[in-house]
Amino acid sequence: MQARLQTPEEIVAIRALSNEQGSSSSQQWLFESCATLPDLAMGRTFGGSSIALGVHAAYHTLPKEATGLRLYSVMGNFLGPGQADKIARIRVTNIRSTRTFATRQIIISQTSTKDECIWQDNFVMLIDFVAQKGKDEQEKRERNIVSYSVQPPLTQIAHHSELCDVKEHMKKEIDSGKTAQQAYDAMEACFNLLDGWDNRYCPEGMFAQHTFATQVDRTSNQANRPIHERRTWDWARFRKPMPIQEFPTSDGILLPPTAIACSAILLCHYLDTWTSVIVPWLAEIDWSEMESYSTLDFAIRFHVDDLDATQWHLRESKSTTANNQRNYVEEQLWQEKPGQDFTLVATVTESCILRGVRQRKEKGKL
């Protein structure tokens, strides 16, 4: 059965269940997703879906007059696996609201697999918005007394203009006999998560060289490096119309209020793809060797205010350590600006679980 594609609207759309309650310092709002969460495998869903829904809900709790607030920090913990094909309920609590900052706690819950009347929390997140100081754009620029950005290794990797989308690349691999159709079918649900994106993997990176761990026996030009020095890169831009709330709807569906908000939500969704398998793929570990792999906690930090997911971005993924069945991964995301230096848009860090298959002892014979 073909994996279901999620439309951009399904990724972000939410509905308000209740208005704010409580005192000004502990206001609460309740939302729910308009679509069920996608099924990746064995009834489990994608963590980035929860992140995107939580960030979107937080935007709808900001005061309408606070137009200068921009998302800069998203940190969270996964409390348990998200259930596929179920609605997610999103509870937002106001932690801080000042002229400069807005901080929100997000808790996402779903109905229990044993009792549909019981809601269980499976995700918690803290989100921060910040406003620049200055009465106008000129004063804001003047008060920004330092500005710089580390640059990506562009001389080492292919440009997006030389590459094709990941699905097209996989089709070529299958047609040439390099990759089995069954290998693609097993991962189709993962590729469908980014159906709204033009996503192109650099052939110099480990992911492309091993065709997303379906060909770990292939020789990589990074195989002689320590794992912490191995890298993978991919280009991405959102290619479909951005789902933005242009006017109120009669059915109460909420979409992102602005293009910048929508870009932030979509980038959070994109940045969580593949993070829990970065380490096993860099370490050339086959799928069959892994019993479990999932994200424990994460931090996404945005370093620019005016986000635009429709522009080309370059992501670099790496890991610095792994031990005790856990690993730590890092991502950097740059926006391409023709004729200018690249701008570091976001950085991501995640701690993940990675456990090998349990060795079963043979039963003794009588």
From TrEMBL:
Limits of the Acyl-CoA thioesterase-like N-terminal HotDog domain: 42-116
UniProt key word Hydrolase: yes
Keyword Hydrolase: yes
Signal peptide (UniProt feature, chain positions): none
GO cellular component, one term: peroxisomal matrix
Organism: Meira miltonrushii
Pfam families, sorted: 4HBT_3 (PF13622), 4HBT_3C (PF20789)
The name this protein goes by in its record: Thioesterase/thiol ester dehydrase-isomerase
InterPro entries associated with the record: ACOT8-like_C, Acyl-CoA_hotdog, Acyl_CoA_thio, HotDog_dom_sf, TesB_ACOT8-like_N
Every Acyl-CoA thioesterase-like C-terminal domain range: 210-337
Alphabetized UniProt keyword annotations: Hydrolase
One of the GO biological process terms: acyl-CoA metabolic process
Superkingdom of source: Eukaryota
